[in-house]
Amino acid sequence: MNIIHGLVLLLIFIFLFRKKKTNLVIKKKLPQLGLIRQEGNVLVLGTGNKGLIILLAASKEVVLNNEEGYYQSIAPYVKDYTVVTYDLPHHKKVTGGHSEVKDPPLEIWGTDPTVLEKNNLLLNDIIKKYKIAGKPVILSGISRGGYLSSMYPNADYYFLFSPVINLRKLKEYKNATFPEAEQYVDENSFTGKKLFIYINSDDTRVGGDWIIKHMTDIVGVKKNGKNYKMMTGKGGHTTPRDIFKKAVKHFSL
């Protein structure tokens, strides 16, 4: 009986120690975002009353541990906002930036025509729960997260960084045949919205040169004026560390 009792206490001690250690790692990674907590499928990175920011990257782990710092660098600019993130459809826990699933997530998207519908329903739920009345909702998406952001109609601001705009232009899907390939940004996508986009002209992964022309012709300044800002560069499928800061500054948030 004493041995069993001792083993139970040892297991409890190990569990509590592991939990404490995990929390310390998260706080070290994102110290300026405050208390981080998991609520269902959503990871809450910080709370504030200036508005709601939803980060769309590959997964929660990428947001927390991305060595490039795409989202770690936003902390100084969002301390008064509620900031949340979640795993994009068909993404699991990642190691080294790669999804631990049998099939690559983008290939799964090609066989699941409900990806956008499911993601939009999830965004509806997140906004319903976390939106601050009378304050803006900001979607900040990188790469495929930019695609999901651009396909959601009910936000106020859209920050798209090296985004997929048309799945047909995505390197993996140039010869794909599935319904979602026909869904991409058109002239009505951002009417009445505020859009900041960064794309490299030599980003062959998502079709950077096509995106620059398409967004300029269809969505650009002539149609949306000061509500639209595009920045371009070179460097392939990458995003500058300070790009979120530039988006915030452009719209005086």
- Please report the total strand number as a whole number: 10
CATH level-four homologous superfamily name of the largest domain: Alpha/Beta hydrolase fold, catalytic domain
Shape annotation: globular
Q: pLDDT average, as an integer?
A: 77
Q: Could you describe the largest sheet, including whether it forms a barrel? A: 8 strands, mixed
Number of helical elements: 8
User: Strand-residue fraction?
Assistant: 15-25%
- CATH level 1 name of the largest domain: Alpha Beta
Task: Calculate Rg over CA atoms.
Answer: 20 Å
Give an overview of the whole structure:
This protein is an alpha/beta fold and 253 residues long. 34% of the residues lie in helices and 18% in strands. It contains eight helices and ten strands. The chain is globular. Residues 17-32 and 93-103 have low confidence and may be disordered.
